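Justification of resources, computational component.

The compute hours requested in this renewal are based largely on the per-chain cost of generating structure records like the one below. Each record pairs the submitted sequence with a full structure-token output. That output is archived, and it is also reused by downstream analysis tasks.
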Amino acid sequence: MKKILFVVLAIFIYGAFLVALTPARFALSLLPLPENIKLGAVSGTVWSGKATSVQMDSFALEALTWQVMPSKLFGQTLAANIWFGNRGSDIVGKGKIGATTEIFSISDLTLKTNISYLTSLAPLPMGMSASGNLSIDAIHFAYSQPWCDTLEAKVIAKDAIVGNEMGQVPIKLASIDLHCEQGSLVATAESATNSLGIDAIATLSSHYELAVNGTIMPPGDAPKLFVQLLEYGIEADEEGRYPIEFREQLN
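The structure output for this chain reads:
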């Protein structure tokens, strides 16, 4: 019996190494990728490889590198460390991805990009523009339609500028915490971590309903145009806070 188990284990290990050492280019040629996903030159193996670029519609990652974590395979999880981007790339980052038969997840993700690049992919409404540095730190994310099952992440914008035909509003710092709540994507901003004095919660439900509630109490050094816009459209309470309440069905 022990000999049979040993032979089965040896065959399993041998098969695993054959798969792991398969050239990545050959393995990907066997996979029917969606038409909107395009890969650049691929090198290396399934176990450890590189792709010069990965593009989905207008979104692209450059210099993608992966390294499979073999220890996770015994837990029936396909997991890998990934790195993407270089000094001249629009997006630079690293993290860990994992997949089982039931769920796709991301952990320990750090990502840096420019806000103007993101707005080129998804233009802002009403002729608005934005620029500045943006970083995302995701401790854990597990996907579930349409948004997520679990999420713990932070988005930080520094030295940003948001503007329209009326002028530009500089934002020294804006920090937003992201999490999931019963299938809804929730973003929380606190006045202690942003330079505009915003305390608000934005919720995007699984039914594509966007709701924003909170207040804005501009600090003494808040941009003049920002304060003027608030005074023009919103009436402050006795403590000088401007209420925010917004709700819209996105589809």
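The CA atoms of residues 112 and 135 lie 4 Å apart. Residues 1-18 have pLDDT under 50 and may be disordered.
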